Amino acid sequence: MDNMLARTGGRPARRGPRVALASVVVGLSAVATTMAMASGANAGTTLGASAAEKGRYFGTAVAANKLSDTTYVGILNREFNSVTPENEMKWDATEPSQGQFSFTSADRIVNHARANGMQVRGHALAWHSQQPGWAQNLAGGALRQAMLNHVTQVATYYRGKIHSWDVVNEAFADGGTGARRDSNLQRTGDDWIEAAFRAARAADPTAKLCYNDYNTDGQNAKSNAVYAMVQDFKARGVPIDCVGFQSHFNSASPVPADYQANLQRFADLGVDVQITELDIEGSGQTQADNYGRVVRACLAVARCTGITVWGIRDTDSWRASGTPLLFDGNGNKKPAYTATLDALNGGATPPPSTPAPSTPAPSTPPPSGGCSATVALNSWNGGFVATVRVTAGSSGTGGWAVAVTLPGGATVTNTWSARATGTSGAVTFRNVEYNGRLAAGATTEFGFQGTGAGPTAAPTCTAS
Ligand code: G3I
What is the DSSP string of 85-125? Predict the structure, then answer.
């Protein structure tokens, strides 16, 4: 897809065939990034063209009933090369009566997209919300069967026309538990998510299959739980290709400091990552700066393949009063639009007030040999997430081991981007295959989650 986008000058080649936003933010230094800088001559003049120059798509949520609004369609056709039906592919819209499918509204969007060379994100096959009444009244085996039939029928109908499917949406609970969200689907058994992914793959082997959620944009208990699920799916061969980060931000739920690092750790599991429902409440330069940060974070992660904003004009938004989008109610470009385009073109210097994702770690200077490690801790009552930054000394590393001492009663329950020996007391974390070899001064990050209190003593790092 990415090459196809690049070759078609901003349009993808046609293919044949009220959230709780409080999130836990981990304070950590962002990893050093290498951001491709486009030459001025190559800089695109629309969101889609500029994203395509970076091998990405830039999409928007679309409502079928707005396709007769000429201002709306003018912006859509000019700026975007991907669309997501905002509501029209959901279960209540596509199967209002059991076994009777209705694709009229969704088809309007898909046909418009294909006629204008845009790709389509399918949203969403299995979700606890926006279920038709008949499904809400089912349980157990009957519901499981109905859900799988729905996934199969809808994905089959659109086979070959969908770039990425949100196969399962919002299946994890908010808060610090990392538990699955209670729902009628969840009550059919823990394996409902993988069953949905298997059914989607069988129905449309050409679409990328995504898990999509909100409040997973930084490292926290919820995103750690999604991470563990994806890791498990990859290990067991459950078909999953991508993870969607909805990225609904406002002052209560700002762009996390570790947004880029969080995208990267998922990408390191071997899946694409996509920003799927971006909107940022606010106005003026502050809002613009935040949009710039999000775009730069995606560009700095090789497997971040595209960005979708959740609507076109502020007045089109599901939370219009927060003016969270790139165009005002009259369709004029906002400062957020300019910052987004500048970031896509790679030419804008982050404003000094903005904690740029590429800010180098203010950590201990690299040692002359060996390696050093620092820990950023996010704790809550009864648990913690530790993000550890490893910095190679002047000789570089062929591998590394970081020794951490946990307080009494603390237990490591989950580790990413490292292998742990031990779960309590003195625990040693060693590199995995891809992050052991570091050039002099280079850094990498790993993390672990635990119950009890997090480590307070400084870690020690040994290079090999
Ligand atoms: O179409 C009817 C209209 O006929 C009726 O008069 C009106 C009365 O309320 O309702 C209209 O339907 C509304 C629909 O949006 C279309 O505007 C629904 O009530 C309303 O619930 C629905 O809201 C959607 C919401 O999902 C439902 O959960 C939003 O448009 C949509 O933006 C939002 O999108 C979700 C993503 O799917 C998943 N992630 C979160 C995101 C934001 O909540």
Answer: ESSTTSHHHH-SBTTB---HHHHHHHHHHHHTT-EEEEEEE
